[in-house]
Amino acid sequence: MKNYSYNYSYITAISIVAALGGYLFGFDFAVIAGGLPFLQKYFGLNTYWEGLATGSMALGAITGCLIAGILADKIGRKSGLLVAAAVFLLSSLAMGLAPSANIFIASRYAAGIGVGMASMLSPLYIAEIAPAAYRGRLMAINQLTMVLGIFITNLVNYSLRNIGPDAWRWMFGLGAVPSLVFLIGVFILPESPRWLLLKNRHARAAAVYTKIGNTSYARDMIHLFQAPAATSSSLSLLLNKKVWPVLFTGITLAVFQQFCGINTVFNYTPKLFERIGASADSQLLQTVFIGVVNLAFTIIAMLLVDKVGRKPLMLFGAAALSIVYLFIVQLLGAKNPDVAWLLLAAIGIYAMTLAPVTWILIAEIFPDNIRTTATTIAILFLWTAYFILVVSFPVLFQQLGDKTFYLYGFICLLGALFILKFVRETKGKLLGGDSNAAVMH
């Protein structure tokens, strides 16, 4: 690959702005952990409604993915991000003001639409503006903002814990602040140059590429894109059996990232620590510790992903989680407070491996002509798996107790075997043109 000069400050700046969608993803993902104990008392939620209040975001995210897939192809990645930001803003206000459980759940569903749109559009946008050599770490910025959203939200939740029974309204309503920042920030973003090329707007694409790199970089990116495979994305192209292996890989990785079970720790931290007799105050404090570990190990992932590669990190994460879960079952069953260290270890492993790298692979492995549609499908499966996970966990934990984590450990073992056999390295490769090398044929 040629040596190009890049405008690193510009690339990083627009990547951070696009990744603010990840921050709001993290907010809506984490806020329920702090708000749920208050919601249970305020609305008298039983196990069923507890799962629905948590999982309604995932149902909205499924809808959001479909909307994002349509908007991303029709009106562009930037315009889609604008819509997502507006949805985040309105839904945060609606959750904070909800007068009933039904309206709260409907508002959280709407927030999920924004999450689904951002979860598809933010990494897609960053992948399409990032040079190949730096794509992994730039895309990891989206994961970093996501965990920052989780961490800051957990801190805010903890600081609001003693203000009264309406604390949950502030927890959810304050999401309007970063939503407004995101909405304003998206206006400064350029459109994705690859989308511009798909729409035959070569002059505008060249202008964006020239801001990212030098003129030779812009010329070569446009030339490489003009291969016969770089045609408009269409659902009908997915009927071609040649793309099925890569699509199957993307879907499986997306589902595995959720069924590995770690998000039960994020969303049900108070429930798990209640099991070992922790006070309500201590339960909320644990969410803060989880946020710190999540943030620290995400930064480590950013340093490793373009050096170590995607596949080694994924393999380590799946195998290590399967082992840690075995010990979690033992200590949780014995109500041993040391289980907190193992739960933090599981969070750290996930944050360094499966959490960021799955999103990177989903954005990298698909060819240009099916990327939007295939990414949408993969993330649809991801959010469906997340919904199944969080809705089923309260029931499974009630029936199986601590042994629920044996199930997640077995899934992690299967995931490791799948990664070993089917996933190939994408580190440093051009986006789209050689993505079929990411799967075993």
UniProtKB/TrEMBL annotation:
Domain of life according to the entry: Bacteria
Ranges annotated as spanning the membrane: 12-39, 51-72, 79-97, 103-126, 138-156, 168-189, 243-264, 284-305, 312-333, 339-362, 374-393, 405-423
Signal peptide: none
GO cellular component terms attached to this protein's record: membrane
Compartments (UniProt record): Membrane
Keywords for the protein's UniProt record, in alphabetical order: Membrane, Transmembrane, Transmembrane helix, Transport
Topology within the bilayer: Multi-pass membrane protein
Gene Ontology MF annotations: transmembrane transporter activity
Domain Major facilitator superfamily (MFS) profile as annotated: residue spans: 14-427
Pfam families in UniProt: Sugar_tr (PF00083)
Family: Belongs to the major facilitator superfamily. Sugar transporter (TC 2.A.1.1) family.
Record NCBIfam families: SP
Protein name: MFS transporter, sugar porter (SP) family
